[in-house]
Amino acid sequence: MTFREPVDLAALNAGSRNTLIEHLGIVFTDAGDDWLRATMPVDARTRQPYGLLHGGASVVLAETLGSSAGNLCVDMRSQICVGLEINANHLRAATQGLVTGTARAVHVGRSTQVWDIVIENPAGKRVCVSRLTLAVVARSDG
């Protein structure tokens, strides 16, 4: 099991209020022992001028999923995970509906984590694949 405790989807969604996550309509929908899933609408908030899902919106979904999953693996009273590097390959256009992203652990270490995120359209076809590296750092509430 990768996550320290069972995932509270309601708490994750509540923590997204008044953030970019909420603004883009990202909603955490499901989780397993080592994966986290969320959806994002393809609409006026997430499209580029040509009517296609904006690649940057896909990257926001990917980093949201990977960072959230990473933080579920650490004791957040003393540590947090922050993005160190992300890459994304945009494989297929999406023009409407919901895209679904799933983050899966590749490596969960003491100082770094690596997550693979796959974003699919409603037909289950890959729209984007992304890899996120997180740094595990001491929490500083200052």
UniProtKB/TrEMBL annotation:
It holds the Pfam family 4HBT. Keywords: Hydrolase. Residues 50-128 form the Thioesterase domain. One of its GO terms (cellular component) is cytosol. This is Thioesterase. It comes from Xanthomonas melonis. Belongs to the thioesterase PaaI family. InterPro entries: HotDog_dom_sf, PAAI_dom, Thioestr_dom. GO terms for molecular function: 1,4-dihydroxy-2-naphthoyl-CoA thioesterase activity. The lineage of its organism: Bacteria, Pseudomonadati, Pseudomonadota, Gammaproteobacteria, Lysobacterales.
